[in-house]
Write a structure and sequence with these properties.
Layout (H helix, E strand, L loop, with lengths): L8 H8 L2 H18 L4 E5 H5 L9 E5 L5 H15 L2 E6 L12 E5 L6
Length: 115
């Protein structure tokens, strides 16, 4: 957690539930991921992709990268995502941790709810 300045978590969480703000944040993430790795593709998945997201929907994204850049992109994910908004945590789902070409990353952004 950032100790530099106290945060109004209630206000930030309320902002995080705003569907327009969430959609704009998702677009920022998509742009940042795609810009980091030319030839990659970042796109929404789940309810955002289907257009059925509500105020409690999370942000599911798929980032498809060229195979020869997989390790580099995986190593850079924390910095790329954290440059959009500071991260509280970033972890790998254990079911994909050993996969040679696929990872499920779970990010929690500072001041935003998980949904």
């Amino acid at each position: 957690m950032d100790e530099r300045a106290p945060r109004d978590r209630g206000r930030e969480c309320a902002e995080g539930l705003d569907p327009e703000g969430r959609d704009a944040f998702a677009e920022e993430l998509i742009r940042a991921l795609a810009a980091y790795c030319p030839g990659s593709r970042a796109e929404p998945r789940g309810s955002l992709a289907r257009g059925t997201a509500d105020a409690y929907s999370d942000i599911d994204l798929a980032w498809t990268v060229p195979g020869d850049r997989f390790a580099d992109c995986l190593a850079a994910a924390r910095g790329v995502l954290g440059a959009v908004r500071p991260l509280d945590s970033l972890r790998t789902d254990p079911d994909t941790r050993e996969s040679g070409g696929r990872r499920l990353l779970l990010a929690a952004f500072r001041g935003l709810p998980l949904f």
